[in-house]
Amino acid sequence: MAKQHPTRSKTEKQPLTDISVFPFFTKYLGHHLAGAAIGLVYFIVILSIGLKYHVVGDYHVETDFFQAYVPSAKDILNGIWTIEDFRGPAYPAVLAVFGFFIKDFFAAGIVVSALTAALTLFFTYELIRKLFRTDIAFIVVLLMAVNKTFVQYAYTAGTDMTFNCFAAATAYFLLKDEQRSWIGIALTAFSAALAYLTRFNGLFVIAAIPLIITLLNIYKIEMKQRLIVSVAFVLLFFAFIAPWGIHSLNEKGSFFFNRNYLNIAYEMFAKGKVGWDQYWNVESVKYSSLGQVILADPGLFVSTVFRNLVEHFISDMELLIGWGLGICSIAGVLGFVQNRPNARQAGYYIFGLMMFLVLLLVFYGERFSMYLIPLYATLAIGSLTWERWREIPIYNGTVIALALVVWSFVTSYNYNKENIDSGPQEIKVIADWFNANIKDSDASKIIVCRKPHIAFYMDKTMKYFPYVTGFDALEQETKKLNASYFFYGIYEANMRPEFQSLLDPNQAPAWLEPITYTVNPPSVLYRVKY
Q1: Are 94 and 126 within one domain?
Q2: What is the helix (H) or strand (E) element at residue 292, kind and residue range?
Q3: 70, 374, 453, 503: which one has the fewest Cβ atoms less than 10 Å from its Cβ?
Q4: 3-class state of residue 515 by DSSP
């Protein structure tokens, strides 16, 4: 016999949207393929937009795409599993598969992001529908689909949406069933492993999921059975990540090898005090482990976490979802006093809370918090269903919810209209001219640059712009790298201003020969002369 949920039946008396009035919604939103249909439509729309307008990778997230993920994907296709310092192999492996068939890795990256965005909407819709109501699920996925950050990373080539998808899948398989299912537990562990192997902060699941199973009793079983299920999840999780862990242990000496402690060190000791390049080239070598970072100043570590607790939450309200939706989300939390969530609903909130807490260790970014969009949206829309609002004659929760969707859409449209083609167009101009006129197809040749984009579009091997002062030192270090080409543009001028004369090809030093250049914005491609 199905278990009853008093908190749900109470709200069902006054639904947010009385979909029975609309035969179309009654028939289709409740259909078992509704989530898949929503995801498919979103995939087609966002992929079309991405491929048409996002033609050059940006200088932010997609720097990692060109510098780390594409080379790792190419290595995988050659049978080499590269161990990267900050991320696991899941995303490069997915990219390798799509890149093999599509041939253009940047286009493949956009396809992967659009596809995983669609899957994220699918998992979210199906889970919210099971935990709450169909109308709430529909409004939540609408708010996600038009959210400016969600849209941006649905066409941006990077790990963000892929991690988001695996995290959503983990929550879905964990919470979709009222009764324990060993297949569900196995799929939960597999999705969690993929999330961890995409981003190492996914390790939070080791604490979150046993906590949800054991303390919340989401499957209504005895404590002994809860402990067995929790242990089974942990064992399956480690079994799924074991091949990579063993590879890391053999190559790097650590099953959990990564250097994300350097990001924590930056948050604690460097942010706002030293420049990004100075930290990564000079200061970062001081730290060798997470324990060392924490023990270097335990008081500062604790105070940083508590400071971020407030700052990250405010940033989520302001930058991630906007205060309009944020105020409703806060109201949803306050509503727990009278409308307590059932065990599985509480599990969903705890899962999101644990992700929020693990992000307190590093600097804030809306893309890191993307998984929290549906959680905030669910809280917000849930607050609009309170029966107390029915006492207000003109109150209409549906109108408010749709107004929030429209407001989010307008904000997203204006934001992404400005950002979707914000990549360095001059890079593509120079690379296209080079490929058409120089026709140097040797991918092993080295180009020195501050950002990897020019190397990707020219199909060359990037070497990082030397962290030196003075042209003599720059020449010496560049030639040590055996570089064939040297690129200097606006970004290089901002980060290495002492060499700004290189923006003018007529002022090039004797060891650099200008090949081609752009004027607005200025950038120059040089050949290194030996």
Answers
A1: yes
A2: helix 290-296
A3: 503
A4: strand
Bridge partners of residue 461, in order along the sequence: 446
Read off the pLDDT band of 10 (50, 70, 90): very low
DSSP state of 103: S
Q: Regarding beta strands 512-519 and 461-464, do their DSSP bridges make them parallel or antiparallel, or are they unpaired?
A: unpaired
pTM of the entire predicted model: 0.90
Residue length, the chain?
A: 530
Domain end among 379, 395, 419: 419
Helix (H, G, I), strand (E, B) or coil at 517: strand
> Checking DSSP bridges between strand 446-449 and strand 485-488, what pairing results, if any?
parallel
Residue 289: inside a domain: no
Distance of CA 399 to the CA centre of its chain: 31
What is each CA distance from 223 to 215, 341, 469, in whole angstroms? 9, 21, 64
DSSP 133: -
What is the tens place of the pLDDT at every residue in 90-145? 999 999 999 999 999 999 999 999 999 999 999 999 999 999 989 899 999 999 99
Q: Which amino acid is at 72?
A: S
Query: Domain range for residue 473?
Result: 425-528
Contacts 24+ apart (CB under 8 A), 456-460: 456/57, 456/66, 456/70, 456/105, 456/106, 457/427, 457/428, 457/431, 457/432, 458/431, 458/434, 458/485, 459/435, 460/484, 460/485
What residues form DSSP beta bridges with 169?
none
Query: Left if phi > 0, otherwise alpha if psi is -120 to 50, otherwise beta: which for 103?
Result: left
